[in-house]
Amino acid sequence: MIKHAADLHQLPPTNDLLLAGGDDRLTLDAGTGRSRYGCRPTPDTDLVSLGSSTASHISPYAYQAADALRQRCVQAMRGEPELVVYRRALAAVRQRLLAYCGCAPEDSPMTLLAPSGTDLFMLVANLRQPQCTVLIDGAETGSGVPLALLGPRQGAPHMVAVRHADGSLRDAGEVDAEYAAIVDKAASRGQRVLLVLTDVSKTGLIAPSIASVQALRARWPDHLDVLVDACQFRLDPVTVRAYLAQGFMLALTGSKFLTGPTFSGALLLPRAMAANAVEAVTSHSNFGMLLRWEAALTEMERFAAVPQTVRLHWVKHFEDAVTRGLMQNAAFTPLPVAAIDRSALGVSPGWDSVQTIFPFTLRGADGHLLDAAEARRVYLQLQLPAIGTRRYQLGQPAAAGALRLCLSARMIADLHEGVASDIDVAAPLARIAQMLA
Predict the structure, then answer these.
(1) Before 74, cis peptide (omega within 30)?
(2) pLDDT confidence tier of residue 106, bands split at 50, 70 and 90
(3) pLDDT single digits (tens) 132-142
(4) Which of 16, 89, 158, 409 has the fewest CB atoms within 10 Å around its CB?
(5) Contact 38, 29 (CB under 8 A)
(6) Which residues touch 71 (CB under 8 Å, ≥6 apart)?
(7) Which pairs from 351-354 meet CB under 8 Å and 24+ separation?
(8) DSSP, res 9
(9) Where are the beta strands (DSSP E) in 5-144?
(10) What CA–CA distance (Å, rounded) separates 238 from 7?
(11) Are the CB atoms for 111 and 95 separated by under 8 Å?
(12) Among 202, 190, 188, which residue's Cα sits nearest to residue 135?
């Protein structure tokens, strides 16, 4: 970031930093001024964000917080070395994240920060050195995850499909059995196995079932590690703590449900595992990741101020509104999403037990089902100006070419604070129907 000794107290502008310290997925398209995720590094108040399963544009609140942190860092760097300032700010990010999760100091997990969810999987592969890895199929997880899990001791990971090609659900028992067969075969050979439990997937699923993973862990306590892919971060803090109490690792990001800018990841290692892990001393700064986490934490803390009863009210309201909206037009076919079941963790169902990602396929006027490429054109066109309507950002096409309507922490905080009066899903659905007619 900082190139010359004379510039030690300087940092690039906030706009530039929010795009730095990641990879080419953050590069802006010369024509649209947007990243591959369809986002700009500045607030876009005319764009309605309903696609937090993919990404969201940064809010004015979050941008102001990121800019203020940059200014504080610049001021501090006038009297202290860059890395001292950066490490202190990064430690504050960890503390705020753990505070949100309700982790007490005496049993707090180790928190490793990384630019993206993909980087988190790479960290786990290097840390645990698995010889066999099994996870959900690529249509339901991050595109870079399989490659990231190519650890030093294994080949390509085993991937288990949870949907058929048409988007319908596979039998949950068959899915659990397929995971178990892979784990049992590898563990019986003495191999170290990494099982990735996805909570929640791109289309809103938990797979494999938590109870089946607990049974596998009990059967192979010395051979099986479990990583919970919670990169959507659609979890209540009590659920996070329950997973940690199982001895499971958790991968989180601030860029999905929390609506921070893309490329902000965190890996939580349970206390027992953290005792055997060595955290590398930060040898270089990544102020881009730092500012993106600052933006995400701003949204997180706004959401934390919303009472549980209010959160539950709005997630159910959103569920009802989307369900009604999708039923009112034959152009839309909701993909089935299994009920969220975390009963095996022993926690009472809360707002995070309600569906917040709603995938649906599209049919043209001639009745044909739009494929992923055609659905992507609709997804992109929704973000363009149109006479008499607003612009909308949905979740990009996933399994079976399904678009996704998603609830986010920011939407709930806006409703609670009076920034928004309701959630309008009828208008974007009407525009899609008009485009398909």
Answers:
(1) no
(2) confident
(3) 999 999 899 87
(4) 16
(5) no
(6) none
(7) 351/236, 351/308, 351/311, 351/312, 351/315, 352/234, 352/235, 352/236, 352/239, 354/312, 354/315, 354/316, 354/319
(8) T
(9) 47-50, 110-114, 132-136
(10) 45
(11) no
(12) 202
